[in-house]
Amino acid sequence: MEEKNFLARLSSKGFTLLEVLASITILSIVAIGMFSFFTNAMQYTTYNQDKTVAINIARGVLAYMERLDFTELKQYVESKINNTDSQSFVYLNASDCSADGFPLLGGENDKETNQKTCERALGPAVNNIDYKTRVHIFLVPYDKKAQDELKANPPEQFPASLIEKIRREDEEDGEGAENINTDLQNYLLKVYVIVRWGDRVEDSEWLEGVIADETIR
């Protein structure tokens, strides 16, 4: 009889309140750690995806600009500079596709279609995000005056990494820009393409290149 009561008391024993609270605390700590890990992983993945999209857009914009008629593009740049006393370089975006004098791939034939092609190239929509206001293009004459002005007064769209690169190159090259053959300057345009993927100026990817006249490519 005593043996049966002992077994009954043993089998009816459960977890104490302290044990339950300790278990909940441990599970909460583990769950918070796992949630934090997955949250950080998702943020990192999104961060890399946005950067990848931005750099691919910049490459597409640069490729489009390099295919434009150089003579017409240079005339358009010079025209905008002459109408602006405050700077020696030109800012472009998708809105320039419909501007008078802006060169289009395909020429004036079917101008409306060519303008739309230009707008899609310079301000595409990717993953339901419209990049028309996020793509910034700067064309700079290949001469010392324009280069010096760009270094002294970089546009507000330039991230710090690009500003630092321009200044570092200028220090390394010394008088390189001034020593460029004047005839060669007439056949070159410096181009910077900046694509902002976030809300801050630093949330940008950029590419630089040189657009050359077809006769020296």
From TrEMBL:
Its main location: other. InterPro entries: N_methyl_site. GO terms for cellular component: cell surface. Keywords: Competence, Membrane, Transmembrane, Transmembrane helix. The keyword Transmembrane applies. It is found in: Cell surface. It comes from the Bacteria. One of its GO terms (biological process) is establishment of competence for transformation. The chain crosses the membrane at residues 20-41. NCBIfam families: IV_pilin_GFxxxE. This is Pilus assembly protein PilV. The lineage of its organism: Bacteria, Bacillati, Bacillota, Bacilli, Bacillales.
